Amino acid sequence: MANTNNNTRQFRKPLNLNIGMIIFAVILFYLFVCVVLYFRSDHIVRYEVKEGSLATDSVYRGIILRDETIQYTQVAGYVNYYAREGERVAKNALVYIVDETGRLNENLEAMNQGENTLSNKELSEFRNEIISYVHAFDSFDYATTYDCKYALKNSVLKLANSNMLQNLSDYGAGAGMNVINYSYSPKTGIVAYWVDGFEQLKASDVKAEMFDTKTDYERKQMYTNALMAEGDPAYKLSTSENWSILIPVEPERGAKLAQEGYIKVRFLKNRLESWGKTTLVSNADGTYLQLEFNNSMLTFINDRFLDIELIVEDETGLKIPVSSIVQKEFFLIPEQFVIPGGNNGGYGVLRQTYMEDGSISSQRLDIEVYSFDSESKEYYLDSSILNPGDILYKLDGQETYTVSRRATLIGVYNMNKGYADFKQINILYQNDEYAIVKSNTKYGLNVYDYIVLDASSVSDDQFIK
Predict the structure, then answer these.
(1) CB neighbours of 428 closer than 8 A, spacing ≥ 6?
(2) Are 70 and 195 in contact (CB under 8 A)?
(3) Alpha-helical segments (H) within 72-196
(4) Each residue of 307-338: pLDDT tens digit?
């Protein structure tokens, strides 16, 4: 049998490179490099300038200041009110009586006065009180529900007491009239049956912690037929229609609002509107805007704090992001040393220079102007072209000026020309995100200009791809 040896060898196929594969590999490598460079480089994002406005926060909580006088009980006993809360009483009008024994109600009920009915006017007052509560209800301040409950309860009892008062003439001295004390109003005014310790508060004494009604604010409500000691607060009188609201504001915002003189105010409780006279009040605790009114005091007689909306015109102009704003330093050059009419209608200066033979001569430099101060008559010139100590000449004389003084401008980087070109801006108002700047300024921005969104991502005169 023949012996067979298998010595067959397999050879690898040679790699056939063609021009298509080489081009594909080069393109793939180029794309990889571009992706890496893209993620490693800083991205300059542009922003198109447009006209706009800022809706400023115009809703505030204010504290009410009124001309209020607390009246105190003269004797101890059960107090029954006969003047309704929010009612204007005349001088020497009956406000309440004090029953020293506490048997007045029992004796009057024993006289069988019969059923009492409410008039349409009285029902309307109850309806308005409930509607006002519904409009002002805040689920985070549930204590107002008890205030409404007590107000309605007092109204009911005061109406009942008014009916009982008509029968007091039938309640003779032998039945105990000698233990009933009548209390009359010392002067005319609006009656209120609550105190909170702020009755004598002045605008200069207002503090920030007073606005924390959930923790520090205490209000005492007086109830009819309640037992009171001698010297307890019985009620209070508001004797003037002039009243005011103080709201906390930032100093700059407050100064601007105070300059208005009068501001239209919307009361969020009932959506009524009124004009308030503005006054800026500053003390060691903060800055407040005082709004003074000469009407509607009766409407809010049962309130110490009010939520209000200031109806003011929004600032309009060119709207830009705050992230675009930057500060840049410039040289201040007097007007007489700046020559108008340079290239493309620009400006120039004559700078002292030295020739090769050591003689002194002058050189004209075209330079860009970034702003002009009309008061000091000085131009803001780029500090990258001039140097401290440079000597400038007047065009029509030998008077010189040494470059030294500097000042700062606020602006943005315009990118219309393909590089970071600083433009001054005049900010009218700004919040945390946007600023409204004045439009149509000589050295500033125009609508539809493109600016750098993040000013920190570029440097002066940097070319932008």
Answers:
(1) 315, 317, 435, 436, 437, 438
(2) yes
(3) 104-110, 120-136, 143-165
(4) 998 887 666 789 999 999 999 999 999 999 99
What backbone torsions phi and psi does residue 269 show, to the nearest 5 degrees?
Answer: -65, -40
Element (H, E) at 253: helix 251-258
pLDDT digit string (tens) for 236-293? 999 999 999 999 998 888 888 898 899 999 998 888 889 999 999 988 888 999 999 9
Rounded to an integer, the average pLDDT of 410-416 is: 92
- In tens, the pLDDT along 22-61 reads 788 888 888 888 777 766 666 678 899 998 877 666 889 9
Which strands make up the sheet holding 77-81, listed edge to edge? 180-184, 94-99, 77-81, 226-228
Task: For residue 178, give the 3-state DSSP assignment.
Answer: helix
Rg (CA), the chain: 41
Q: Within 10 A of 280 (CB to CB), how many other CB atoms are there?
A: 16
Q: 203: closest CA among 289, 308, 274, 300? A: 289
Inter-residue contact 247 to 203 (CB < 8 Å): no
Q: What is the pLDDT of residue 176?
A: 47
Owner of token pair 């003269």: 74
Structure tokens at 267: 């009361």
Cα–Cα distance for residue pair 166/131, rounded to 1 Å:
31
Token digits of residue 243: 């009243």
Burial track 180-206 (b if 16+ CB lie within 10 A, e otherwise): bbebebeeebbbbbbbeebbebeeeeb
Task: With cut-offs at 50, 70 and 90, classify the pLDDT of residue 382.
Answer: confident
In order, the DSSP letters of 21-85 are HHHHHHHHHHHHHHHHHHHHSPP--EEE-EEEEE----EEEEEEE--EEEEE-SS-EEEEE-SPT
The predicted structure's pLDDT at residue 174: 45
